[in-house]
Design brief:
Blueprint (H helix, E strand, L loop, with lengths): L1 H14 L5 E7 L2 E8 L2 E8 L5 E8 L2 E8 L5 E9 L3 E7 L5 E10 L4 E11 L5 E9 L4 E10 L4 E12 L16
Antiparallel strand pairs: 1-2, 2-3, 3-4, 4-5, 5-6, 6-7, 7-8, 8-9, 9-10, 10-11, 11-12
Length: 184
């Protein structure tokens, strides 16, 4: 009888299990709001130390399927969606004005909170015209520029088409790769 009562008590506790709930996690000056439905994580929002939304992640079966990042004025900075599991995403990055800045594909390494570009990325001027295509590769730690094609947006012709061998780090501004850091 004692064990039967214990069994009913355990079943009662399991039936009280939360299925739809929100969890708040505060660490390093940020607050993460994790939303669960039927016991599964469906979205998470990260707020900066001033309480503004910094990024939002949508999940399906434990996999990040959409990523939104925001400017401090709450306009979308970038939007990524999963196009091939487990970690291949298509991304669009926007200027603060809302016009597209650049777009391409990349790999998101959730456990490292790292997004690395790969393949061709089109870069746009603030007026919305494409002015460059950079081709990226990565080694799961760093991204490199493998190629650069620059356009003359007035004459509508290619100004430069270069393959870098070896590839170069885009974080290192050089005489060869200036346009990526200073759009027209």
């Amino acid at each position: 009888m004692k064990y039967l009562s214990l069994t009913f008590f355990i079943l009662f506790l399991q039936s009280c299990k939360k299925e739809n709930y929100t969890e708040l996690i505060k660490e390093n000056g940020t607050t993460t709001k994790a939303n669960y439905k039927k016991g599964r994580l469906v979205s998470s929002e990260i707020y900066n130390n001033s309480g503004k939304l910094d990024s939002k992640y949508l999940y399906s079966n434990g996999i990040v399927v959409e990523i939104y990042q925001y400017y401090p004025n709450q306009k979308v900075n970038s939007y990524s969606y999963l196009h091939k599991a487990p970690n291949h995403y298509t991304t669009k990055v926007y200027y603060k004005s809302g016009k597209i800045s650049n777009e391409g594909e990349g790999d998101f390494f959730k456990n490292k909170a790292l997004y690395l570009r790969r393949g061709p990325w089109v870069f746009y001027s603030k007026t919305g015209e494409p002015y460059a295509v950079y081709t990226f590769i990565h080694d799961s730690k760093n991204q490199y520029i493998k190629g650069e094609m620059l356009f003359d947006t007035i004459k509508k012709k290619i100004l430069r088409d270069v393959i870098f061998d070896p590839p170069i780090l885009p974080e290192k501004e050089t005489a060869e790769v200036v346009h990526l850091f200073h759009p027209k």
